[in-house]
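Notes from hallway chat w/ T.B., transcribed later so I don't forget. T.B. wanted the structure written out for a chain they're using in a teaching module, and asked if we could keep both sequence and structure tokens in one place. Agreed to drop them here.
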Amino acid sequence: MSLSHHQVFMLKHFAMGWKFKLDNKVNGSWLTYWSLRRRGLVDAGSVVTTLGRKVLARELQRQAKREASK
């Protein structure tokens, strides 16, 4: 499963306990939030699921490899 940088950013923050605000006005945040929900990575309470934690760990490893190869 491939995620965008913004999806990884939001998923990482949800894993740290951040909750999605219904009055969020940041461009793309609603689309990203619902994309994560549809994929089953985040549940209704902005809590990262088991699958979400696995995908996040994999995406962070990929980012680290990309940055190391630069």
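Follow-up for T.B.: The CA atoms of residues 34 and 43 lie 10 Å apart. Might be a good example for the class.
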